[in-house]
Amino acid sequence: ELSPAKQSMTDEEFRHEMTSPGVMKYVVEDELGQVIALACMTTDVTEVPWLSPKYYEKNFPEQFARQAVYFVGTILVHPERRGGRHLMKLLDSMGGDMVANQGVLAFDCCGYNSEQVHLPRIINKAASRLCEVEEVVLDQQTYYAFAYKGPKQPD
């Protein structure tokens, strides 16, 4: 595993996201009509159980009031199609909504996707092709582990 936090959904969570009317779905298909990339986002931050709506309301009051805070919960690209243009196609589609609504795109990203996949950099590049964009790191969470090695020996 690449992250201490779960980076996937259960089947039930995925079905909920796919059927929720408050979640926008973006799909990229190949020339044969096979789905090769998928992204989901919502402007209803209450749809995402671990988000704090009050945080987004406080930090982006104008966009929050217009329901223009978009939270991306899922980005999937078929493993055999990664590293190509498919992610950029997804981001371009999503970016159209951002530009039209002068919205805020928010997401969480594990260290691996940030440092190895460079997802924030890719999203910034895609957004910068469409409009002026300001990248803001909202917060950072670090997972720690303390391995207890048994009782300390007396001095």
On the 0-100 scale, what is the average pLDDT? 86
What profile does the largest beta sheet have? 4 strands, mixed
Question: How does the helix and strand content classify structurally?
Answer: alpha+beta
In whole angstroms, how far apart are the ends?
40 Å
DSSP strand content: 15-25%
Give the tally of β-strands: 4
Number of helices: 6
Summarize the structure.
The protein contains six helices and four strands, in the order αββααβαβαα.
Describe this structure in words.
The protein is of the alpha+beta class and 155 residues long. It is 35% helix and 18% strand. A hairpin with a 5-residue loop joins β1 (23-29) and β2 (35-42). α4 (86-101) packs across α6 (119-130). It is globular, with a radius of gyration of 18 Å. The N and C termini lie far apart (40 Å). The mean pLDDT is 86.
Topology:
Layout lengths: L10 H9 L3 E7 L5 E8 L10 H7 L1 H5 L3 E9 L8 H16 L2 E4 L3 H5 L3 H12 L25
Parallel strand pairs: 3-4
Antiparallel strand pairs: 1-2, 2-3
Question: What are the main properties of this structure?
Answer:
single chain, 155 residues, alpha+beta, four-stranded mixed beta sheet, 6 helices, 18% strand, globular
